[in-house]
Design a protein that fits this description.
The chain contains 9 helices and 10 strands. The protein has 236 residues and is α/β, with parallel strands linked by helices. The protein has a domain of 136 residues: Rossmann fold. The protein has a 6-stranded mixed sheet, with helices on both faces. The longest helix has 17 residues. The chain is globular.
Length: 236
């Protein structure tokens, strides 16, 4: 599904990603882990095309997309929920969601649209109560639900989630966790989750990829994550 081979990326002349290599399989939930500043968010930006890579290759669904612009990657089936959520503040909740649906690569009819929106409303019932509110006045938890719902409406093959629990009340964290577990069981699309907290990640992910100083230092099945690795590189 997704494969990174020896990806190197820079901010100016600062070498940020160093030969990053890992894969995410179809339907898999993988967690990209590590302490602050090790390159996790930068890796997601490289995958989505928001940050150009200087060398290496990024392949998705069997196609090389290393040099494709961000919008073309989205059309291939990538959906990204960044840390800041990037809700468009002057648009209503309904309008923000509609943007996600318009990003679909297929040409759905009205019935497909209703089914897709009904699914989001079932996953996040709170959104039905605030459909006409501007995105900019929502709480952090409401914005996160909206951002994930908008991404799901794009009908992704791979959903990228950058620390979806950061700064959110525990009840919303539990709800987001339930949603991710549901998708994991359905195997409808793959999920690459960036998370510092070990416990949240361990409950959700089948595979872990640990980064340190811009490089991948370990990868494997989540239940094989060693105590030494946790102590050295992760937040418990």
């Amino acid at each position: 599904m997704l494969e990174l081979k020896n990806v190197n990326a820079y901010y100016g002349e600062s070498h940020i990603l160093r030969n990053v290599t890992f894969t995410v399989e179809p339907g898999e939930v993988a967690c990209l882990m590590g302490r602050n500043g090790v390159g996790k968010t930068t890796t997601l930006k490289a995958i989505t095309g928001l940050l150009p890579v200087r060398s290496g290759q990024i392949s998705f669904a069997g196609k090389d997309m290393t040099t494709l612009p961000t919008d073309r990657r989205a059309r291939q089936g990538l959906a990204y929920v960044p840390q800041g959520r990037e809700i468009i503040p002057h648009l209503t909740v309904r309008q923000n969601l509609q943007l996600g649906f318009w990003a679909r690569s297929d040409r759905p009819n009205g019935s497909v649209e209703k089914t897709a929106f009904d699914e989001v409303y079932q996953l996040f019932p709170k959104l039905t109560q605030i459909l006409n509110r501007p995105g900019g006045v929502l709480s952090g938890g409401e914005q996160q639900q909206l951002a994930i719902g908008r991404a799901i409406l794009s009908n992704p093959k791979l959903l990228l989630l950058d620390e979806p629990t950061e700064g959110i009340q525990p009840s919303i964290v539990d709800q987001i966790e339930d949603v991710i577990i549901g998708f994991k069981q359905q195997r409808r699309f793959a999920i690459l989750l960036v998370e510092q907290g070990l416990h949240f990640a361990a409950r959700l992910a089948e595979k872990y990829v640990v980064m340190a100083k811009g490089a991948v230092v370990a990868a494997g099945k989540s239940d094989e994550l060693s105590a030494d690795m946790v102590k050295q590189h992760l937040t418990v």
